[in-house]
Amino acid sequence: MNDKKLYPKKSLGQNFLQDPNIIRKIVDTVQPLPDETIVEIGPGRGAITSYLAGKCRELILIEFDQNLADTLQKEYETDRHVRIIRDDILKTDWKEFLPADKIVGNLPYNISSQILFTLYKHAMDVGEAVFMVQKEFARRLVAEPSTKDYGIMTILTRLYGQAEILFHIPPTVFFPRPKVDSSVVRIRLDSDNNQDIDDKAFFHQLVRTAFNQRRKTLRNSLKKITGDQSIPCMDLSLRADALTFEDFKRLYHILKRDLPASV
Ligand code: SAM
Question: Is the pTM here over 0.90, yes or no?
Answer without folding.
Answer: yes
